[in-house]
Amino acid sequence: MRKYRINGGVRLSGAVDISGAKNAVVAILPAALLADEPCRIENIPNIKDVATSLLLLESLGAKVDRINEHTVEIDPTTVNTCEVNDDLARSMRASYYFIGALLGKSGRARVPMPGGCWFGERPMDLHLKGFRALGAEVTPVEGDCIEVQSNQLMGNSIYLDTVSVGATVNIMLAAVRAMGMTIIENAAKEPHIVDLANFLNTMGADIRGAGTDVIKIRGSQYLHSAHYSIIPDQIEAGTYMAMAVATKGDVLVRNVIPKHLESITAKLIEMGAWVEEMDDAVRVRCNTPLQRCNIKTMPHPGFPTDMQPQIAVLLCLAEGVSHITEGIWENRFRYTEELNRMGAKIEVNGNSATITGVEKLSAANVTSYDLRAGAAMVIAGLAAEGVTEIDNIRYIERGYENIVQKLVRLGAEISLIDDDEE
Ligand code: EPZ
User: Fold this and answer.
1) pLDDT value at position 120?
2) Would the CB of 40 count as within 6 Å of ligand 1?
3) Active-site amino acid positions
């Protein structure tokens, strides 16, 4: 089995370059289907979810030309089916964005229902409510798939009962080719929502209000080619900031948008770290004992749920008792079992965790339950004394480009091993 092996206790130092945002690119690649001409997209991260998304585009008949590791040209004019490849789609939850994109493009989509995740039920009711509001019929079909169909999508006002990134994205994708105006109320405001709106507007769409809780989309008859660059990944950046603090290091995190990191920066400063903001970088240092604090994860601009496991590792090493309340997912604390095996003191009660700081963490063999839980295991391994091995690293590779190389360049003693070969 492939694992990461980390010899912890090394202070990280130097500079790390952040890649394009995973949660933006998995929405923007399907969105390229909506154009009537080829699109060029730059700063795409070299991660497994991008590889899966490009294969899905090709399986629909689109021409995909990988200009280089971080640039792709997509020609959607050769698409010849609305049925998404089953195996590929089931391997990535975000494949459900192809429903909104295909519905907007050709009025029909057939996609397998996405899998759940370790952190509880992940429904799609708001996505389907949005498609129906635009005039589409939603039909469950054999093989645990859904078929969504409409002869002519008509703009409408849609209120999202819960703030949902996925539903906001999927409704935008369908609405951009509908007749008339669509208004999404209680919309998600994450940076990747704004990035998607900017991409679609670059191809001639008329989307206003992205980044606020009311997004207005006037449907377009024709969308021309677009040349676009993906924003930096807010969560990858926050993860490396947490790594710098966990190892009492001094790291320059480059190619970021500091405004996207405000809630993370505020919490690291509250814990006693030192964060200097520049135009497109942040420098993170820590050489004092960490202080306790409380975290409540919220929709943007609140503290991001996708940084919850990573910040928990820092709270394990802080003086005093801290509390985390998970405000988005019903159970995103499974990783705490692994941290407790490394000597942490975490008690979970429903959607909240109480963390009593300890002097240090001890190395152990641990598993990654999901993408961000795996990132937390890496942070814990970097901070712990001794050799930590982390398995199920395929989750981590879904969202972190070249994490081993980036960490080695910061001085970490980390390597990718395959113990089947050893
Ligand atoms: C996106 O997931 C992200 N994934 C997640 O990041 C992130 O945790 C989440 O947004 C919250 O920010 C991608 O962008 C690919 P939601 P998504 O719809 O869209 C409920 C990562 O680590 N809900 O905003 O699936 C839902 O149960 C991943 O990068 C409904 O009730 O999340 C949850 O409680 C993990 N009905 C809340 O809304 C629906 O139809 C927020 O979910 C949809 C969602």
Assistant:
1) 61
2) no
3) 117
